[in-house]
């Protein structure tokens, strides 16, 4: 199975800050990496797919980069609605595991 | 826009079997997508359970040790999950989702169904 390691587990930031979340996989997965945002009590929402592509309707301040085994999600100029938990998921092969999540909290 | 809705019992007994259904609207389960189950224990991360294709092909998490069954009902436009030999560790919110395209990104989700395993 491919292991997915996401870091940090949490971070504290302010509105207007830029934050970066990293996801590493135990094997190369090309660009089969997706990013999701989850708010408390809600279903996850797709942000980035194929490591780089922005899902329709997602603001351009969300950017995905990386390929192979190392990937990042960068949120530029945090807005109040961006404080949430973020997950990566590898979809290269089954089981299509998620990372452990990163909680982005208001400082 | 495709919409998904989970249904099933909210409380199940230990050692029992959980059966959940996901109703799909705005799209056909017979389309070229995979249909996925994800769960989330209280306060914990998302866990991929498994996926089913409209032709019946399935993949599931080895960690669930063969306790998982999945099926698809094209006339009813729904798909289902069965999880046997339940323990308290199976408590959580269960989501169904559509895995779209080559990247199998989960672009549409149900609202989630809370399930408690308790006597």
Descriptive account of the structure:
The complex is a heterodimer of chains A (107) and B (119). With 107 residues, chain A is an all-beta fold. In chain A, 0% of the residues lie in helices and 48% in strands. Chain A is built from no helices and 10 strands. Chain A has strands at residues 4-7, 10-13, 19-25, 33-38, 45-49, 53-54, 62-67, 70-75, 85-90, 102-106. In chain A, a hairpin with a 3-residue loop joins strand 5 and strand 6 (53-54). Chain A is globular and about 35 Å long. With 119 residues, chain B is an all-beta fold. Chain B contains no helices and 11 strands. Chain B has strands at residues 3-7, 11-12, 18-25, 34-40, 47-53, 58-60, 68-73, 78-83, 92-100, 105-109, 113-117. In chain B, strands 2, 4, 5, 6, 9, 10 and 11 form a 7-stranded mixed β-sheet that branches. The interface between A and B is medium-sized, with 24 and 26 residues.
């Amino acid at each position: 199975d491919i292991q997915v390691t996401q870091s940090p587990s949490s971070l504290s930031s302010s509105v207007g800050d830029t934050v970066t979340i990293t996801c590493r996989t135990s094997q190369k997965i090309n660009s089969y990496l997706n990013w999701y945002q989850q708010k408390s009590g809600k279903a996850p929402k797709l942000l980035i797919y194929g490591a780089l592509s922005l899902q329709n309707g997602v603001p351009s301040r969300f950017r995905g980069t990386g390929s192979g085994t190392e990937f990042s999600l960068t949120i530029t100029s945090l807005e109040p609605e961006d404080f949430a938990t973020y997950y990566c998921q590898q979809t290269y092969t089954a089981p299509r595991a998620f990372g452990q999540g990163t909680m982005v909290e208001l400082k | 826009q495709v919409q998904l809705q989970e249904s099933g019992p909210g409380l199940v007994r230990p050692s029992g079997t959980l059966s959940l259904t996901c109703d799909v609207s705005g799209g056909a389960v017979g389309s070229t997508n995979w249909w996925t189950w994800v769960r989330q224990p209280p306060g914990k991360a998302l866990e991929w359970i498994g996926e089913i294709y409209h032709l019946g092909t399935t993949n599931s998490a080895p960690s669930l040790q063969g306790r998982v069954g999945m099926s698809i009902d094209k006339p009813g436009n729904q798909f289902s999950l069965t999880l046997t030999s339940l323990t308290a560790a199976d408590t959580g919110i269960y989501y169904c989702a559509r895995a779209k395209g080559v990247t199998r990104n989960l672009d549409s989700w149900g609202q989630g169904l809370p399930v408690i395993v308790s006597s």
